Amino acid sequence: MRLELTGRHIRITAAIRSLVTGGLDKLDRLLHDNAVSLQIVLSTEHHACHAEVTLHARGDHVLHASGSGRDWSEAVQQALVKVNRQARRLKERWTDQRRRRESGPKVTAARLASAPAPRDPAAGPRIVRARRYAVKPMTVEEAALEVGADRSAFIVFRNATTDLVNVLFRRPDGHLGLIEPDA
Prior knowledge:
Layout: E1 2-8, H1 14-23, H2 25-31, E2 35-45, E3 48-57, E4 61-69, H3 72-100, H4 105-114, E5 136-138, H5 140-147, E6 154-159, E7 165-170, E8 176-179
Helix pairs in contact: 1-3, 2-3
C-alpha cells in the first residue's frame, strides 16, 4: 500500500509520521493487498487538528473519512476508526459475494454431472457428450498398445488397413473388444 502523508500549515515530524503509521496496522491486516493507496491530509484550523483519510481499494472503491480533535492523536484516531469501519463493511461485501456466487464452471459442471436432471421418462435416455477424440490412423495392434491395462479404457481410431473408424475397448473379462462398421 502506498502512503502519502500531507501537511497543510504544519510540518510533518517523525512523531506524527509514527503516530499515523502505527494506526495503519489494523487497516493493513484487514485489507491485505486489496488496499492500493492511502492519502492522509493533516491540517490545523482555529487551534483544532483535522485529519482526512482517503483509501483507494481494489475495484475502484474509495473510502473517505475525517476526524478532528484537540491533538493529532485524537484526530488521526477518529479518522482511522471511521475508515476501518468502512473497510470492514467492504470486506464483508466481498466475502458475501464470494459465498453467494458459484466458484465457476468446475463446480457447475460437477454439479450437472452428479445431480440427476429432471426429465420426462418417456423421452428416453439422455445423451451426454463426454469429450472429443482425435481419430488417428493406426493398426489394431498399435491401438491395443494404446489401450494398455486400464479397465475402462477405449480408443477410437482409423484402421490403417481398411480406412474405417474402429473402436477398441477393454472387456470386463480382461480381453479387448473391437467394433468395426460393416463395409
